[in-house]
Amino acid sequence: MDIVNLAKALVLGVVEGATEFIPVSSTGHLILIGHFLGFESTGKTFEVLIQLGAILAILLVYFSRLLGVVLCLPTDAWARRFVVSVIVAFLPAAALGAVLHSRIKALFERPDLVCVALILGGIVLLVVDRLKLEAREDNAFRFSPWLALKIGLCQCAALFPGVSRSGATIVGALLMGTTKRAAAEFSFFLAMPTMAGAFAYDLYKNYRVLDFSDVTTIGVGFVAAFISGLFVVRFLLDYVSRHGFTLFAVWRIVVGSAGLAGLYLMR
Fold first, then answer.
1. pLDDT of 188-235, one tens digit each?
2. DSSP letter string over 73-123?
3. 228 with 13: CB under 8 angstroms?
């Protein structure tokens, strides 16, 4: 058993779960940290499979509410509208991601571009967070399909590594007139089909080259992603309701700048 690899897997798993649902780009962080740690997995097996840990974390937190929605579908128009809204928001990025999959994957080999995207995204998030926007929507379960579609179109920007799926959807929702809490919560709901779809598509594209030989390493990353994701989902909404997204904007700028400096020094 390689203790060094297990330690790297633990770090990457914690990072995946901790950053998946906040607007700092989990993919960008995994690319940069994996690059500097020298961590590689055949066919990106590790990176693909630990996403399941983060998906299970958000499903566990929202299980009772989502089960309530499912049970109310036959009789409650609002429940059906919620499901339609999430599906409508999911489709634009899913369709574009399927078409551009190979080109998007090629960008994963460019940590310098990830750093630039982190910095620019941090600046955008900082500006939007400080705008005096009129908040008309405060319940993520009540977003209209039209509002959801516009948020889903914004999510397409996150196909570029380093932009952040949650960051794109949160910024889009805020600009469309939602509260910060509702924007973050709808980003959670949209994460479920988006992450599950991306996981399934990655698995389909790479199953021939997947290497499951190091089950222990994958297991460590999976559990770490689940636990850290669970913590973030439980506490994020209350935090952003009180403090907004400035911390995450600054975080992006600092990480992106440090990454560029590190890449320059390693040349």
1. 999 999 888 877 877 777 666 666 667 788 889 999 999 999 999 888
2. TTT-HHHHHHHHHHHHHHHHHHHHHHHTHHHHHHHTT-HHHHHHHHHHHHH
3. yes
Residue 69, number of CB atoms within 10 A of its CB: 18
Q: Which residue has the tokens 């190979």?
A: 102
Instruction: Give the pair of three-digit tokens for residue 240.
Output: 């952003």
One-letter identity of residue 58: I
Q: How far apart are CA 92 and CA 157, in angstroms?
A: 10
Continuous H helices in the chain? 3-19, 26-37, 45-49, 51-61, 63-72, 77-99, 101-107, 111-130, 145-155, 165-175, 180-206, 215-243, 246-265
Could you tell me if 24 and 255 are in contact, meaning their C-beta atoms sit under 8 angstroms apart? Answer: yes
Distance, in Å, from the CA atom of 180 to the CA atom of 159, rounded to the nearest integer, reads: 23
Q: Which residues lie closer than 8 Å to 10 by C-beta, 6 or more apart?
A: 220, 221, 224
> CA nearest 27: which of 124, 114, 145, 140?
114
**Mean pLDDT confidence for 114-141:** 93
DSSP 131: S
Q: What is the tens place of the pLDDT at every residue in 45-104?
A: 677 778 889 889 999 999 999 999 999 999 999 999 999 999 999 999 999 988 887 787
As beta bridge partners, residue 137 has 178
Both tokens of 85, joined, read 């809204």
Which residues on adjacent β-strands are paired with residue 178?
A: 137
Position 44 scores a pLDDT of 63
